[in-house]
Every structure is written in C-alpha cells, then in structure tokens.
C-alpha cells in the first residue's frame, strides 16, 4: 500500500525554519505558499465545528490532527479557489500572477 505525503506546503515544526525557507523563495512562490496556508487556516476554522459533530469525535489532539489533515488536503493544488484569488490580490500591479500554476519549489515541508 502506498501512502502519499500529506501535503507539500506544510510548514516546518519550527516557524523560524519555515520563515527561512519562505525567504529563500521568489516573490511569486512566496505568494503561492502564503495564499495556500491562509486558505488552509480558513478551512480548518470552518471544518472544526463540523467534524466535532461526528459520532466518536473527541476534542483531543486526534480531532485537531484530522481537521488539520482535511484542511491541508482541501487547500492543496488548486484548493477551493480562495488561494488563487488571494494570490491575485497579493500580486503588485503590473506584475502577472502565476494563476493556475504551482511553483516548482513551493515545497517547504521538512
């Protein structure tokens, strides 16, 4: 059985390390990663109450991990569409957004 990685844009456990990797990326890649992470945070906030209503769902760490995994997966790739809109909003005037294309080195996982 093959198990795919959870997501390629998970932040490192150490926020400073994640920030260092983010600072090494181009501005286009930074916008892409930040937009995806923001979308994941918003999805996590929306999914948490819904997943707590499931039978057997507790309030412990496993419930948080399940919610986080769903949010990261839903926001990966093209996501729900919010990341693309945010990326266009983050793009300065006169510069074209990388709409629909995910940067090749956007992988910031450990």
Task: Summarize this structure briefly.
With 110 residues, the protein is mainly alpha-helical. The protein has four helices and no strands.
How would you describe this protein?
With 110 residues, this protein is mainly alpha-helical. Helix content is 54%, strand content 0%. The protein has a domain at 55-79. The chain has helices spanning 15-23, 27-52, 61-75, 82-90. The longest helix is centred in the middle third of the chain and has 26 residues, at 27-52. The two termini are 23 Å apart.
Anisotropy-based shape: elongated
Backbone CA Rg: 15 Å
Order of helices and strands: HHHH
Number of strands: 0
Helix content: 40-55%
What would the average pLDDT be, to the nearest integer? 74
Helix run count: 4
Most strands sheet: none
Distance between the termini: 23 Å
Chain-wise SSE layout:
Blueprint: H1 15-23, H2 27-52, H3 61-75, H4 82-90
Helix pairs in contact: 2-3, 2-4
What features would you highlight for this structure?
mainly alpha, 4 helices, 0% strand, disordered C terminus
């Amino acid at each position: 059985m093959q198990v795919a990685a959870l997501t390629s844009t998970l932040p490192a456990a150490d926020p400073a390390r994640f920030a260092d990797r983010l600072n090494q990326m181009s501005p286009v890649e930074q916008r892409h990663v930040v937009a995806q992470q923001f979308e994941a945070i918003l999805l996590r906030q929306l999914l948490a109450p819904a997943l707590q209503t499931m039978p057997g769902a507790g309030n412990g760490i496993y419930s948080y991990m399940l919610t986080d995994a769903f949010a990261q997966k839903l926001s990966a790739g093209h996501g729900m569409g919010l990341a693309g809109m945010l990326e266009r909003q983050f793009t300065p005037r006169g510069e074209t957004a990388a709409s629909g294309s995910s940067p090749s080195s956007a992988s910031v996982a450990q």
